[in-house]
């Protein structure tokens, strides 16, 4: 193997899996008799860490809450995770890969899991809109920079 082949950047998906799954319907069965449209709230969190030489785990947590004016219909939380192989990449590029590229890969899996879980709970599927993880990453970086200057 030539030296140039050895130094080629490597990025591959080793495994994608559901790391944690939770569904609560605190006001069942009465909530199924409600005709009102719930307000849907979605929260996202992403975390990446090195787990071995050249291997990283990224976990994307999606929390979806459906609320009526005076009660919660359901609370669904899914943590979709992946193991990614990242080698021969400059150190300064690792964080953006973990914060943007990996969540972009995981989000469709998390979205499908949320939709299926909510549907199995007896509610219409929740269809989550696409997320711009690059914009979220840049926003987090700006907030960290502001906090560092405070």
Automatic annotation (TrEMBL):
<keyword id="KW-0653">Protein transport</keyword>
<keyword id="KW-0143">Chaperone</keyword>
<keyword id="KW-0963">Cytoplasm</keyword>
<dbReference type="GO" id="GO:0006457">
    <property type="term" value="P:protein folding"/>
</dbReference>
<comment type="similarity">
    <text>Belongs to the SecB family.</text>
</comment>
<comment type="subunit">
    <text>Homotetramer, a dimer of dimers. One homotetramer interacts with 1 SecA dimer.</text>
</comment>
<dbReference type="GO" id="GO:0051262">
    <property type="term" value="P:protein tetramerization"/>
</dbReference>
<comment type="function">
    <text>One of the proteins required for the normal export of preproteins out of the cell cytoplasm. It is a molecular chaperone that binds to a subset of precursor proteins, maintaining them in a translocation-competent state. It also specifically binds to its receptor SecA.</text>
</comment>
<dbReference type="Pfam" id="PF02556">
    <property type="entry name" value="SecB"/>
</dbReference>
<keyword id="KW-0811">Translocation</keyword>
<dbReference type="InterPro" id="IPR003708">
    <property type="entry name" value="SecB"/>
</dbReference>
<dbReference type="GO" id="GO:0051082">
    <property type="term" value="F:unfolded protein binding"/>
</dbReference>
<dbReference type="GO" id="GO:0015031">
    <property type="term" value="P:protein transport"/>
</dbReference>
<keyword id="KW-0813">Transport</keyword>
<protein>
    <recommendedName>
        <fullName>Protein-export protein SecB</fullName>
    </recommendedName>
</protein>
<dbReference type="InterPro" id="IPR035958">
    <property type="entry name" value="SecB-like_sf"/>
</dbReference>
<dbReference type="GO" id="GO:0005737">
    <property type="term" value="C:cytoplasm"/>
</dbReference>
């Amino acid at each position: 193997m030539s030296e140039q082949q050895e130094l080629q950047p490597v990025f591959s998906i080793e495994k994608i899996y559901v790391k944690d799954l939770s569904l609560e319907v605190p006001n069942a069965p009465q909530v199924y008799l409600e005709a009102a449209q719930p307000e849907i709230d979605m929260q996202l969190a992403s975390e990446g860490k090195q787990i071995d030489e050249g291997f990283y785990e990224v976990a994307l947590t999606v929390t979806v809450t459906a609320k009526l004016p005076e009660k919660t219909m359901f609370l669904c939380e899914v943590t979709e995770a992946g193991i990614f192989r990242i080698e021969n990449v400059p150190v300064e590029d690792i964080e953006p890969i973990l914060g943007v590229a990996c969540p972009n890969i995981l989000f469709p899996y998390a979205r499908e899991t949320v939709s299926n879980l909510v549907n199995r709970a007896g509610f219409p599927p929740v269809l989550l809109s696409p997320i711009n993880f690059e914009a979220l990453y840049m926003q987090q970086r700006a907030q960290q920079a502001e906090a560092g200057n405070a």
